[in-house]
Amino acid sequence: MKREIIITSDGSTTIHIPEWDEQYHSKHGAIQEAYHVFIKNGLETIEKNEISILEIGFGTGLNCLITFLESQKNINYVGVEAYPITKKEIESLNYVSSLNAENQVTHFNKMHTCSWETKQQITSNFSLTKQQKKFKDINDINAYDLIYFDAFGARVQPELWTEEIFNKMYISLKNNGTLVTYSAKGSVRRAMQKVGFTVERLPGPPGKREMLRGKKKL
Predict the structure, then answer these.
(1) In-domain check, residue 10
(2) Deepest of 38, 69, 86, 182, by most Cβ within 10 A of its Cβ?
(3) Which helix or strand (DSSP H or E) is residue 176 part of?
């Protein structure tokens, strides 16, 4: 499918898929959404010095970059992506400049150019493993403290928001692990609850009234 770079409301870029009328990030602000959903309501709630994170939809690498910039802890980051973006698309993203992180451009480039399927050290306290596969093929058990669930919306890919997928997420989390997502659809909340998550609705990022956060409690 055709993909094009667009500017979102906060000045940061994202990728738009015209055929679906769907974006990789919120058109109301890619960076604002990432900070609100995944950092404020995800990363900042984890009270550990070593954190394992699974990102569902590595995409542009924005969530990975912001996590790298914001955390002073030891991070083991795993990003799953079935369809990696191209070198040309990477070069068209303006995240480094939008975040005033020009001194980290080497690390952002390394996130995209490092090998897939093997653990890579971005810095001494931040490792990244990129896995090219579909979400249904995730089979981790008790491996993560936090999941960034950033898949394309249920309107265009409902198969990514099912009980089957959320059961895989639940199994892959450690006890007391957290899953955060920008979605607040009732069907998504019910699917999460059905597989065992304790789910809460939270105020959403710009352009969205609510978002969801789920906890794994045994």
Answers:
(1) no
(2) 38
(3) strand 173-181
Taking a C-beta distance cutoff of 8 angstroms, is the pair 12, 95 a contact? yes
Q: How many residues does the chain have?
A: 218
| 5 within some domain | no
The residue among 130, 192, 202, 181 whose CA lies nearest residue 26 is 181
Q: 217 pLDDT band (50/70/90 cuts)? A: confident
> What average pLDDT does range 145-153 have in this prediction?
97
Give me the CATH number covering residue 125: 3.40.50.150
Q: Which pLDDT tens digit goes with each residue over 14-34? A: 999 999 999 999 999 999 999
Ramachandran angles phi, psi of 210, nearest 5°: -140, 165
Give the count of domains, the chain.
1
Write out the residue range of the structural domain in which residue 41 sits. 29-215
Nearest to 33 by CA among 88, 95, 81: 95
Surface-to-core class of residue 137, CB atoms within 10 Å of its CB (0-12 exposed, 13-18 middle, 19+ buried): exposed
